[in-house]
Amino acid sequence: xxRLSVTIITLNEADHIAAAIDSASCxxxxxxxxxxxxxxxxxxxxxKGALVSTREWTGYVDQKNHAAVLAANDWIFSLDADExxxxxxxxxxxSILASEPRMRGYRxxxxxxxxxxxxxxxxxxxxxxxxxxxxxxxxxxxxxxxESVDVDGGVGHLKSELEHYSFRDLRDQLDxxxxxxxxxARQMFEAGRRTGPLEIAAHPPAAFLRNYVxxxxxxxxxxxxxxxxxxxxxxxxKFAKLWELxxxxxxxxxxxxxxx
Length: 260
What we know:
Elements: E1 4-10, H1 17-23, E2 29-34, H2 41-47, E3 51-54, H3 60-70, E4 75-78, E5 83-85, H4 87-96, E6 105-108, E7 110-114, E8 117-119, E9 129-134, E10 138-141, E11 148-151, E12 155-157, E13 162-164, H5 170-190, H6 197-214, H7 221-247
Parallel strand pairs: 1-2, 1-4, 2-3, 6-12, 7-13
Antiparallel strand pairs: 4-9, 5-13, 6-9, 7-8, 10-11
Helix pairs in contact: 5-7, 6-7
């Protein structure tokens, strides 16, 4: 029966880390790789029985791959501090690992709690993530944003949801939109992508229609409308910042992959 390690990378996650570790009780061990927390994250994690390693921040991909290297087991479940493994998901993980799994990685839905409810509409859902994987056949890849597990072989599907407490409030969401749109624009620019007025004008309303109509944000009332508008705004910022990069030489200063 394969054993399971849960890995978590952290920076100042004192509000979340205890609940994240508690939700990982199905694992044989929990590994926390911390990059310099000053809010008690490390102490809380250790008090919960996690094995904690401190390491300078080197980027999402490198930190997550490093956490997998530290694990005692080959099967890894990568958990963010603001996520929770539900009892249903824990039961499904135990079932998969009751014998040698057929696949080398497993992908499942993630549901976000925001504005007072679980969001199962818009681009927020199902937000499928590959989190359970065999490190002998998979590793994290990516650059600034949208890091993901690259599996050598077939990927199976998990039915149970991973819970995500993604934002504290709208202000937090706006701060993150600003941050990640900068990284996304940088990533597109360095990949050779360029933009102009047509894309800047067309992509945001298209994103709104996709979120609000095609992905049923309308069914979530004001919450769905708000999320659809903010997702559209995020798309606008991404392309506007890309335009700024390609037209403003002073904004092209090298950006480290270690940005967080």
